[in-house]
Amino acid sequence: MDNLTMDLIKLTRRNRDGAYGTQKNRQRGLTAIAAELRDLGYKLPAAHSLKTKHVGALVEHWQCRELDAATIRNRLTWLRWWAEKIDKANVVERDNRAYGVGLKAEQQPNRAFSLPSAKLAQIDCPYVRASLRLQAAFGLRREEAIKFQPRFAVRPHRIILKGSWTKGGRARQIPLTTPQQHAALLEVGRLVLDEGSLIPHRLSYAQQLKRYEHQTLNAGLRNTHGLRHQYAQQRYLALTGQRCPLAGGKRWAELSHRERKLDIHARRQIALELGHGRLAITNIYLGSAVQ
To answer: Is 193 found in the same domain as 132?
Structure first.
């Protein structure tokens, strides 16, 4: 058990707020968060070491794992409790909307955004810059874009992702359909000339992840998972010829029979490209059209 976990357990035992079940859930949740921080490369020596950057890294990590908004809101409640008990309440935003999880499903916000060239230019590390371009062009998760090995991945008309790079160990392929994708792969190819990845040889994945987080935060790219949402919405437009519901397109009741068939086909394809086995997961990216 590391120092942070031990300190959090002591903190929960000193502050027995709420019912017994609430206390136990909070303690389990906080110790799990301590493990996640450690896995992300943050070795906090004590509970009082919590900072805004740690909260931001956790939220992005949870969103990269596609946890639902209700789960993230619950975990933010534990983080706020932690912050309050160490007299650092301001390290966690009071409004969940600051993290894009403040609204209920029927009021789901559109988290998609394109990669601004001005902000990309503020990224000093060429490896981080290339990873961001891959995220935008192919809808990759952050980890996939950092571990990307062009010598293995780039094939005629598609890219192939190893299971060791992906969530759940599910290998997958994504078609090459746009000039943006070809341009991103050219940049990566110029940068990585051997069998390596977008992790510089002298660094570990955890070290490169911290560099990625630091540089994207400084450039004002607070949550790059929105690039994955943008990819899904662009693919929906390409496959159906119209915008998805979250981007102002038609709801299910407004679609013709032909449009409904296109909608379902597009969602199945997008789910595969994003690495998901369930069609319903596309509601997070596209909005709820399928009834």
So the answer is: yes
- Alpha helix (H) ranges present in the chain? 3-14, 20-39, 52-64, 69-85, 117-120, 126-138, 142-147, 150-153, 179-191, 205-218, 226-240, 257-274, 282-286
How many other C-beta atoms are found inside a 10 Å radius of the C-beta of residue 277?
A: 9
d(CA 127, CA 74): 34
pTM over 0.85: no
Token readout for 47 is 């509970």
Tens digit of each residue's pLDDT (9 = 90 or more) over 217-231: 889 887 898 999 999
Q: For residue 176, give the amino acid letter.
A: L
**Residue-number span of the structural domain to which 45 is assigned:** 3-105
SS3 assignment for 192-207:
CCCCCCCCCCCCCHHH
Contact present, 273 and 172 (Cβ < 8 Å)? yes
Overall number of domains in the chain: 3
- Beta-bridge partner residues of 175: 158
Residue 85 domain-assigned (yes or no): yes
- Distance, in Å, from the CA atom of 185 to the CA atom of 176, rounded to the nearest integer, reads 10
Q: H/E element holding 174? A: strand 172-175
What's the CATH code of the domain at 210?
1.10.443.10
Calpha distance 99→83 (Å, rounded): 16
> Rounded to 5 degrees, what are φ and ψ at 158?
-165, 170
In a domain, 232, yes or no: no
pLDDT digit string, tens, across residues 185-215: 999 999 998 889 999 999 999 999 999 989 9
Domain assignment of residue 235, yes or no = no
Q: How many of the other CB atoms lie within 10 Å of CB of 278?
A: 8
